[in-house]
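Onboarding guide, step 5: your first structure request.
Type a short instruction followed by the sequence, for example:

Predict the 3D structure of this protein.
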Amino acid sequence: MKFIGLTLGFNPEPRLSSKEKLDNVVAAAVWAEEAGLDGFGVGEHHTPDTEISSPPVILASIAARTTRLRLFTGVTVLSVLDPVRVAEDYATLDNLSDGRVEIIIGKGNTPLQGKVFGYDAEDQWDRNAEKYDLLHRLITEKSITWSGRYRPPLTDFSPRPDWLQPAPRIWHGSATSTQSTDLAARAGDPLFSANVTGKLEQYRDLVDDYRKRWADHGRDPADALVGAGAAAFHVAPTSQQAHREYEPYFRAFLDRASTFKQQLPFADLDEAIAGGSYYVGSPEQVLDKLHRYQQALGHEVQHVGDVDLTDPVRLRGLEAFATEVLPEARKIPDRLWEGPAGRPPVDDDHDVKEGTPA
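The system replies with structure tokens like these:
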């Protein structure tokens, strides 16, 4: 299994300056590479409590300071963006990073984004689907003629620059709706399950739906590629110590849960560890839970929750994961970044073969 760090850029009180927070995000990615993680993702939000509104700029800074990390978006809020600009930004980043870009798209999950960009929240799913169709073509075709409802038409448009990767992936973020699983399965793209605030059963049902729809489109379910998120990873020598150290963070998360569209279904940390993606415990407990979740979801890449170097307690918990759990967890099989899993076959000129989804 592959593992990636992630940050959404939340900046709660007492707030850091924007520069301090953004510098810390880049430093966290450098730490992730040094700790042996395989990738690092940054979210995109347009709300007052976060500092990351421009993922490609931050990922470019990370690319300049790392050599191996895959560079994830988590997610690119495609419903409010122009696919042409998205394709240009990330193709540029792909070249500057020597082909390390991994885009995860989604419609977003905050009502404020529609107000900020002047879009009706009721048509976000339609916008997301149409803009995905255009983004897919911009990435896989050399010249595009296209028309739709939500942006001006294109005629014989040739996107620049070329991507360095011959067949870049577009992952589809999934949290609450089968509309994401349907779009991903129909396109033949990988799915990245949020797997954060809810119970395992909620996300397992969506992943199962994705694989069923994948098969309904005539594809082998074994070829479907899935990633999964986590609410937190915190490892300590004993379960009691891990619980004691993480409890204040869980309580703080409960306090701000009202900012999320879906309320947490857990009353306390014990419930969250038992029923959700809180990997909090001893090395043996966390490794066992990874195996159980992988059996349920069948995922091949796992993000390890928010990486924050400013908090010595959380950092110590992640360092313990990297040294005590990661070497064994890597033995869980995966096909990522070592073969063609999740990517279409390509011709010698790097064009995607006709009829093959990215």
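Each response can be followed by summary notes, for example: The domain at 2-329 is CATH 3.20.20.30 (TIM Barrel).
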